[in-house]
Amino acid sequence: MVVCGLACWRCRWLLPLLLGLAIIMGIIALAGRGWLESESAPYVQQASLWESCTRGEEDLNWNCESLMDYGWGRAAAATYLVGFVILVICFALAVIAFSIEILRFNFVRGIGGLLFVVAAFQIIGLVIYPVKFTEDIPLTGDNMFSWAYGFGWASTVVVIGCAFFFCCLPNWEDEVLGNIKPTSYYSSPERAPYLN
User: Which of 4, 64, 132, 139 is the most exposed place for a label (fewest CB within 10 A)?
Assistant: First the structure.
């Protein structure tokens, strides 16, 4: 016997869990010093969302300058940070929405709309940063946009996926709430002799 149907009410915490994962990746992106790094030794350049640091090949100390002195640096940090704050708000709203017994599906769709706003803010910050950084900051040696910048994009991709799921979830309201009985398919050997 095969049982088909959505058991989504039991796994309703999957979407808030994914939003929590996006928040963790966003924290790593905000705090990480690996937005831009030297590609190979000697490692003479590294940058975060907030500052750019260089050092000589034999020097052990980093000389850092704040990116907040540039208009584009403030814009990139502000847009990514605003998106992150809205993401935290969406996470709290999702936990509230999935905690109550009677799920408000219009409320869930609103969270999806807010998540698209989050994605837009984060994408703006993630695009401004590399374009203006390479124009205004002198680069030394071979450099690459590295792991912390990648976590920023990973957070954005998870947010976009969650936004689609939150917006589409009301279309399966009955399945999620368990109002539809699962369909059972049973095939006996007597009814399907051609399968033997």
Answer: 4
